[in-house]
Amino acid sequence: MSGRSGPKGPSRSSAVGLRSARGRSVASQAWLARQLNDPYVRAAKAQGYRSRAAFKLMELDDRFHLIRKGASVVDLGAAPGGWTQVALRRGAARVVALDLLPMDKVAGVETLQGDFTAPDMPERLLALLGGKVDLVLSDMAPNTTGHGATDHLRIVALAELALDFARHVLAPGGGFVAKVFQGGAERTMLAALKRNFAAVRHAKPPASRKESSELYVVATGFRGHVAGTATDC
């Protein structure tokens, strides 16, 4: 993909029905019907992306200009690889992708399988990187419990770990993106972001389903370890 054009053709069309519901639970039928009628799912398949989530990063990049040509990028929570594909197609020269789950190889990408929360994982990533990077992406999310407050605290904890890692590996001027859930417990993390980045914002890209509570914190203009005041949130 060249330039920063948005997703090609996630257009609304007539609803597609299930040919057969035999052997499927009600929940399974609902999930499959949603997938069949999701324009982003169809667009991802048409354009060769591994997941509809690719469009979330495209929309964030269109808005905040995160992926620079020749950039070095770390993709945390990368599987199945949609964000990794976007980073490459939009000009990244190097992508290191990590996920707890196995991920099919993407040409030109260094892939590592493991738990980001494991005590040795940040050091393993640092050794693999061998230098500073321009962008740290985190689409990591814990398995949800169905209890909103608990799920919010757990995903913010993951985002805070990703931020701590980013502060060690980002080059000056670099960017950071992390998924959180709506809830408010990320105030401590936002304060740290504001000290270390020139601009900090919340964003919910159009590709994020309306019923989902997910948001992304987007921080740009990494200051290094010099404290400062962010422009806005």
Structural class: alpha/beta
Shape, principal axes of CA atoms: globular
Largest sheet: 7 strands, mixed
Element string (H = helix, E = strand): HHHEHEEHEHEHEE
The overall number of domains is 2
Name the assembly state.
single chain
Annotated CATH topology of the largest domain: Rossmann fold
In terms of per-residue confidence, which ranges show pLDDT below 50 for 5 or more consecutive residues? Answer: 11-18, 26-33, 227-233
Biggest sheet: strand arrangement: 3-2-1-4-5-7-6
Task: Please specify the SSE layout and strand pairing.
Layout (H helix, E strand, L loop, with lengths): L25 H11 L2 H9 L6 H11 L7 E5 L5 H8 L4 E6 L9 E5 L7 H9 L3 E6 L9 H22 E12 L5 H10 E7 L10 E9 L11
Parallel strand pairs: 1-2, 1-4, 2-3, 4-5
Antiparallel strand pairs: 5-7, 6-7
Structure description:
By secondary structure, the protein is α/β, with parallel strands linked by helices. It folds into two domains: 7-48, no CATH class; 50-222, 3-Layer(aba) Sandwich (Rossmann fold). Helix content is 34%, strand content 21%. Strands 3-2-1-4-5-7-6 form a seven-stranded mixed sheet, with helices on both faces. Helix 3 (54-64) packs across helix 4 (82-89). Mean pLDDT is 84; it is low at 11-18, 26-33 and 227-233.
Summarize this structure as a short list of keywords or feature phrases.
globular; Rossmann fold; 233 residues; disordered C terminus; 7-stranded mixed β-sheet
Summary of the model, kept short:
The protein is an alpha/beta fold and 233 residues long. The protein has two domains: 7-48, no CATH class; 50-222, 3-Layer(aba) Sandwich (Rossmann fold). Helix content is 34%, strand content 21%.
